[in-house]
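Side project, low priority. Logging it here so it doesn't get lost.
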Amino acid sequence: MVRAEEHSCRSRLLDIARKGDTRCLRLFLDYHGLALLWSWMMDNTSPNKLKIQILDTLFALPIQNKTMLKDSKVMCIVEKWTKPRGDVMSINDRKDRFATIPFINSLFKLLI
């Protein structure tokens, strides 16, 4: 997965990861899968479709606490993605604004 440079390869790998059973997803987390996803999230050339797939994959992972998200720096990127550009909003304002998106809503529950 680390060598996947093309967005189409990353997209296929994310699809495979999302369809994995719980044991495989736990192993993905144990073997620094969040750090890998963070590196993909940092790629500024990623299209929005890939970003949505990354968020869907994060939603599928059995993340048990926000410490995992903080340690891997994934939470900071998700916060940036949910923040409108040029707009300063508190975390509670963002929570209300994105309450209809299940994954982001569950992340905000971990944040607060």
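Brief comment: DSSP finds eight helices and no strands in the chain.
Revisit when time allows.
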